[in-house]
Design goal:
InterPro entries: ATP-cone_dom, NrdR-like_N, RNR_NrdR-like. Negatively regulates transcription of bacterial ribonucleotide reductase nrd genes and operons by binding to NrdR-boxes. Belongs to the NrdR family. It holds the Pfam family Zn_ribbon_NrdR. Its cofactor is Zn(2+). The chain is 49% helix and 20% strand. The relative contact order is 0.09. It is α+β, with helices and mostly antiparallel strands and 168 residues long. Helix 1 packs across helix 2, helix 2 crosses helix 3 and helix 3 runs antiparallel to helix 4. It is built from six helices and six strands, in the order βββββααβαααα. A three-stranded antiparallel sheet has the order 1-2-3, with no helix packed on it. A three-stranded mixed sheet has the order 5-4-6. The structure holds zinc ion (ZN).
Length: 168
């Protein structure tokens, strides 16, 4: 780290502490040449690589605002949004790479969002997967139906009830 005053490259660390809940380290340094002191902050950054090639730090707030847009008019509260963003961040961090393509962040959002609100999920997926036709929606909705049927405790039970009611 070069001294900001004289550009000398030999600076010694005189104090070091964790800030921002341990995600960053602040170091107090003294220049060996001019003796002046300055502070550096080192932050471990998860970078998101956009399709254009531009990178930016991963931001939980950005996840929240993107999902909030998809949740407009739905009964999804702020708490749920924050929880979802937290899950997305965990998933992204667990990926083990420091540079994540933005579409992988999108992928990490889709799973938890599907559980949270199916309409918001469809909206988000339509943008993220660039749906171009009604068929795209139909396919996605069909998948949602299949998933919902799979989750029901006993789907056959429901079918039986529907069939037996007229005769009974
Ligand atoms: Zn200096």
């Amino acid at each position: 780290m070069r001294c900001p005053f004289c550009r000398h490259s030999d600076c010694k660390v005189i104090d070091s502490r964790e800030v921002e809940e341990g995600t960053a380290t602040r170091r107090r340094r003294a220049c060996a040449a001019c003796g002046k002191r300055f502070t550096t902050v080192e932050e471990a950054v998860l970078a998101v690589v956009k399709r254009s090639g531009v990178t930016e730090p991963f931001s939980r707030d950005k996840v929240v605002s993107g999902v909030r847009r998809a949740c407009q008019g739905r009964s999804v509260d702020e708490d749920a949004l924050q929880q979802l963003a937290h899950r997305v961040e965990e998933a992204v961090r667990a990926g083990g790479t420091a540079e994540i393509p933005s579409n992988e962040v999108g992928l990490a959002i889709l799973g938890p969002l599907k559980e949270l609100d199916e309409v918001a999920y469809l909206r988000f997926a339509s943008v993220y997967r660039s749906f171009t036709s009604i068929e795209d929606f139909e396919r996605e909705i069909a998948d949602l139906r299949v998933a919902a049927a799979g989750e029901a405790a006993d789907p056959r039970d429901r079918a039986d009830r529907r069939e037996t009611s007229p005769s009974g």
